[in-house]
Design goal:
Blueprint lengths: L8 H5 L7 E5 L2 H4 L12 H6 L21 H11 L3 E5 L2 H4 L9 H16 L3 E7 L5 H5 L6 H18 L5 E6 L1 H10 L15 H19 L5 E7 L3 E3 L4 H24 L21 H7 L5 E5 L4 E5 L8 H7 L4 E4 L15 H15 L6 E6 L16 H18 L10 E7 L18 E3 L6 E3 L1 H14 L4
Parallel strand pairs: 1-2, 1-11, 2-3, 3-4, 4-5, 5-7, 6-8, 7-10, 10-11
Antiparallel strand pairs: 8-9, 12-13
Helix pairs in contact: 4-6, 8-10, 9-10, 10-12, 14-15
């Protein structure tokens, strides 16, 4: 199997429905820079990044890709790429610096320019309201551990809907609440840096409540575009057939997948096993009114997939990074690797077949209540040079994207294992190399190489492959 045959852009394009969306995704905090320009307030991530040792190599997000000042150049890249849609996030602290009260005109104007330039380029905007950059004043009052943050999010969503609702094709309320809770509040490796483990669970409910309130606010604002939510999902498997491994795999699946999706799609939290209830008591008693708020009708469901997870009971024998040691050592389970697969720069298994499994699991669990699905993030980092003088031949990324798209299209085609899923599109993570959270600039996911010294943008081989895919799909796969 070669890139020129079964994984070719033309062959994949021929299998896509005419309305299938090809897009790319990015996040404000990771690309915009200009952290003090134009009236932008500080976020929890700005404060976290200033902590010694929080970011690999001491890298700073202050400039990132300088997208704030290079907007026309980056929209021109999107237009050259030829994608249907660009999924970006609005920066809450750029629009509402205190997280409540007055709004920042310069921040609002920036996204006006972005939207107008995207539409002029023939690119449909998908706007994410929250991609992890909580205004710092709200973080100081407890962040997502505080119910007030959900209530303030509604005010922000209303303002965004009123300002941009005539131009945004699709809205995403939240990006990956599971990652915010797990990495930011349970393990402490992301902002705000709390290692609360199971005591982090109020942050789940308050994020889901913010989602429901956000949907209501957008609809009250009369937005023209569809509304959904995006979460990270992974198929979870036990490391063995031992009863202990199977029990913790079931628990991990609840914590990774169902505790976020069930309230949104079914209007209830999943039943928790008796042995786990003492660990999860911090989430407290949930009112029926809150569940009704969370359970809003959606126009689509966003799925981010990167890799499968395998777990075993007890603490692992493998070495644990120092920044995770204290928290992870207290967990009743540990992750186990997939040595049979290749891996990305992050060490994540490259397992496109598990994307098909995940799609099947979503359909099996939610059936007809699952709205149309967009894969709102898919991509991989690989070791690449800091500077380039010619097109980078990132064949591993081309292969990653081709095999994952193939898996998704095969699974959801008539007769496929997830044929009941209405798959509407795929968004590559990401347009260009950027500030990759706690990994700083060490992990490159982009279709476009960024030299973080000069900020020069250089399209990679994967950029031109995705461009060919977009053109072939536009031509009907011919």
């Amino acid at each position: 199997m070669t890139l020129e045959s079964t994984e070719s852009a033309t062959e994949l394009a021929s299998r896509m429905p005419p309305s299938f969306t090809l897009g790319v995704a990015a996040a404000a905090f990771q690309i915009e820079g200009a952290v003090t320009d134009g009236g932008r307030g500080p976020s929890g991530w700005d404060a976290f990044a200033e902590k010694p040792g929080a970011i690999l190599g001491g890298h700073s997000p202050a400039v990132a890709c300088d997208h704030y000042n290079r907007l026309p150049e980056d929209v021109a890249l999107l237009q050259e790429l030829g994608v249907d849609s660009y999924r970006f996030s609005l920066s809450w602290p750029r629009i509402q610096p205190d997280g409540r009260g007055s709004f920042n005109k310069e921040g609002l104007d920036f996204y006006d320019r972005l939207l107008d330039q995207l539409l002029a380029a023939g690119i449909a905007p998908m706007a994410t309201l929250y991609h992890w950059d909580t205004p710092l004043p709200l973080e100081h009052r407890g962040g997502w551990l505080n119910r007030e943050t959900a209530e303030q999010f509604s005010e922000y969503a209303q303002a965004a809907g009123e300002r941009y609702g005539d131009r945004v094709a699709q809205w995403v309320t939240l990006n990956e609440p599971v990652s915010v809770t797990l990495n930011g509040y349970a393990l402490g490796v992301h902002a705000p840096g709390h290692a609360l483990l199971f005591d982090a669970f109020p942050s789940i409910h308050h994020q889901l409540l913010a989602h429901g309130l956000g949907v209501q606010a957008l609809r009250a604002a009369g937005v023209a575009g569809g509304i959904g939510v995006t979460n990270l999902h992974a198929p979870v498997r036990p490391a063995s057939r031992k009863i202990g491994d199977r029990l913790v795999a079931h628990l991990y699946d609840l914590l990774m997948n169902r505790i976020y999706a069930d309230p949104v799609l079914l209007g209830r939290y999943p039943a928790l096993p008796l042995y786990a209830r003492p660990w999860l008591r911090s989430i407290g008693k949930i009112s029926d009114a809150d569940l009704r708020t969370i359970h809003q009708p959606l126009d689509f469901y966003g799925l981010n997939y990167y890799f499968p997870v395998k777990v075993a009971m007890g603490r692992g024998s493998a070495s644990i990074p120092a920044d995770l040691h204290k928290a992870v050592a207290r967990l009743p389970f540990h992750e186990v690797g997939y040595p049979e697969y290749g891996s990305t720069g992050f060490g994540w298994p490259v397992a496109p077949d598990h994307l098909a499994v995940l799609l099947k699991e979503l359909h099996d669990r939610y059936g007809d209540v699952l709205p149309p699905v967009y894969i709102t993030e898919g991509g991989a980092s690989f070791p690449e040079p800091d500077s380039v003088t010619e097109t980078l031949q990132d064949q591993d990324r081309v292969r990653y994207l081709a095999t994952h798209l193939d898996a998704a299209l095969t699974a959801t085609a008539p007769g496929g294992i997830a044929s009941g899923i209405d798959l509407r599109g795929y968004y590559v993570w990401t347009l260009m190399d950027n500030f990759e959270w706690a990994a700083g600039y060490s992990q490159r996911f982009g279709l476009v190489h960024v030299d973080f010294q000069t900020l020069a943008r250089t399209p990679k081989q994967s950029f031109y492959w995705y461009q060919a895919l977009s053109r072939a799909r536009a031509a009907g796969g011919k």
